[in-house]
Amino acid sequence: MIIVREEKLVEKKEHPLIVSVSPHVRGEETVSRIMWSVNLALLPVFIMSVYYFGPRAVYVTGLCVLACVLSEYAFQKWLRRKVTISDGSAFLTGLLLGMNLPPGVPFYIPLVGSVVAIIITKQLFGGLGYTIFNPALIGRAFVLISFPKLMTIWYKPTSAFVGLDATTTATPLGILKEGGLGQLLEIFGDKMHLYEKLFLGNTAGSLGETSAIALLIGAGYLFYKRYITWHIPLSFLATVGVLAWIFGGKDIETGKLIFFAGDPLIHLLSGGLILGAFFMATDYVTVPTLRKGQIIFGVGCGLITMLIRLKGGFPEGVMFAILLMNCFSPLIDRQVRTKPFGAVGEKKK
Amino acid sequence: MSLHKKSSWELIKNGMFGENTIFRMAISLCPSIAVTNGMKNGVALGISVMFVQTMVNFTVSLLRNFIHPKIRIPIFMLIIAGYVTIIDLLMATYARPIYKEIGLYIQIIVAFASIFARAEVFANKNKVWPSVCDGFGMGVGFLMAMVVISFFRELLGRGELFGYSLISGNPLLIMVLPAGGFLAVGLLMGFFNWVDMKFYGGKGASGV
Predict the structure, then answer these.
(1) Per-residue pLDDT at B111
(2) Do B174 and A142 touch (CB under 8 A)?
């Protein structure tokens, strides 16, 4: 009864002196505002991917976005749920999925990935806010495992890229895994050239992951708007950097492991690490909500990433790292929950 | 003595739909994921389970008055193991190629929850003919589930059925991997529950 009366009062807004229940101060941030801001933050990344991979980038990303939005619309219509395509979350999923695909994929890979991402990972679990795993990453994992050959053909960036006339090559991390640092330096010249190319994004890789500078600009915008905090990205990147420094060093001739001789910058700048750390591992829904838990989450992501990069079968492990840590989010949240002041601890049985 | 006053056909239908081992009870999921990456294996295991389930129910029901309640579990185990050995040796002799692939899972039938559960909750308390019907129905239900799951997994994952290639192009490789097994079982379970809710009011497709 009381609740009904409160609502009526709030609707009328005639009595400024009426005491109402909290929250009293409302921000202007809404879900759709945040989602569209993240989309905006991905704009520089998209521009760089068009610059390096030409019309093909528009084609792949556009297909992903279109398929994501359409499948969300169709599924919500079918289940007679409220259609929420205008909040930008499906758009964001499509954009992130597109940024995570290699430029030369045939048309059905973005379609399959989008349908899996939206319908299986997001809508079947209850829609936005109820997902266990990051939808875009599940979509990518699904297509990577389903079409392992097509998903690992990488192209050298050329702006006139249309798919057939481009040269294929391995990603920097792939070269590092197969041939070691020596071969990587042979291809790129010296270390400064390598860093420069990795930083600007002039290397083979997924559409949105190559250009570190564009990603950092986007991430800077999100930091400025305070939509993401430093906890996850910093702990993620720091763990990867430290582990790369300790375990990443190899003797060029013998291939034997040398401790504390690795090059953290190569590992930090290459692959999907920056994209993953700033845009995927900061997804509100699938990560721990408490700050302490977020740091644990980031460190865990870093550990698994480096484990896969250095010891696993895949050259890149950011995707699997984030997905695996997503499973642990509820567990982490439960572990780091703070005890209210003065609370009595549970009795030991 | 009989707890269930249903006709034989109702008992069989109950096993097939109302209490389908995999889609309704969600037990014995291990083989439904491990073996269903091809129709051939799925059907072979389904038929084996059908045979063992029917015969175990028959035997347990026959002996139900002689089995001391305190040692019934080991005795069920012995009966099941006996029939599993029969099917194991038969397959090893007459269906060598399939046996090489799914031999382990044939032996694991001994530990199937569905067979054990039916012996305990039904055959141990009912007369012989209803028990045989129940066991047969459960077995058919399991076989059906295996056929449906392996149909989708083989068709989508390899583009083949019974080893004959039907679809060219790039299949969804994930469907024949274990992850695809979970996906297929989950989606089909959801689908059958949806059908059940939509057309039978959530009572099970047999209307029981």
Answers:
(1) 86
(2) yes
Q: Give the whole-angstrom CA distance, residue A34 versus residue B153.
A: 39
Nearest CA in chain B to A149: B170
pLDDT in tens, B71-92: 999 999 999 999 999 999 999 9
pLDDT band at B2 (very low <50, low <70, confident <90, very high): very low
Give the pLDDT confidence score for residue A2 in this predicted structure. 41
| Average pLDDT of the segment spanning A201-212 | 87
* A326-337 tens-digit pLDDT: 999 999 999 888
Contacts of A146 in chain B (CB under 8 A): 171-175
Beta-ladder partners of A147: none
Inside any domain, residue B121:
yes
In a domain? residue B2:
no
Q: For tokens 């291809």, what's the residue?
A: A187
**Exposed, middle or buried, B106 (CB in 10 Å: 0-12/13-18/19+)?**
buried
Q: Is residue B60 part of a domain?
A: yes
Average pLDDT, whole number, for chain B?
86
Task: Kindly tell me if the per-residue pLDDT of A180 is higher than 90.
Answer: no
Average the pLDDT over B167-178 and give the result. Answer: 84
- Could A120 and B170 be called an inter-chain contact, meaning their C-beta atoms sit closer than 8 Å? no
Indicate the number of domains in chain B.
1
CA geometry: angle at A232 spanning A41 and A184, to 5°? 80
* Model ipTM value: 0.79
Range of the domain at B170: 8-199
Q: Give me the percent of chain B exceeding a pLDDT of 90.
A: 35
Phi, psi of A168, rounded to the nearest 5 degrees: -90, 150
pLDDT at B1 over 60: no
Q: Where are the domains of chain A?
A: 31-152, 171-336
| Rounded (to 5) percent helix, strand, coil in chain B | 75, 0, 25
Kindly determine whether residue B179 and residue A145, on different chains, have CB atoms separated by under 8 Å.
yes
User: Mind telling me how many Å the CA of A80 is from chain B's nearest CA?
Assistant: 15
The mean pLDDT of A281-308, rounded to a whole number, is: 93
Does A234 contact B at CB distance below 8 Å? no
Which helix (H) or strand (E) segment holds residue A168: the answer is strand A168-169
Residue with the two structure tokens 């999921």:
B29
Q: Is residue B207 part of a domain?
A: no
- What is the DSSP track for B147-164? HHHHHHHHHHHHSEETTE
What value does the mean pLDDT take over residues A259-267?
85
B171, B174, B190 member nearest A145 (Cβ)? B174
Q: How many CB atoms lie within 10 A of CB A59?
A: 18
> What are the φ/ψ torsions at residue B107 (nearest 5 degrees)?
-65, -30
C-alpha dihedral sign at A71, A76, A78, A82 = negative
Q: Are residues A150 and B170, on separate chains, in Cβ contact within 8 Å?
A: yes
Assign A235 to helix, strand or coil: helix
Residue A3 has a pLDDT of: 43
List the single residue in B with minimal CA-CA distance to A144: B174
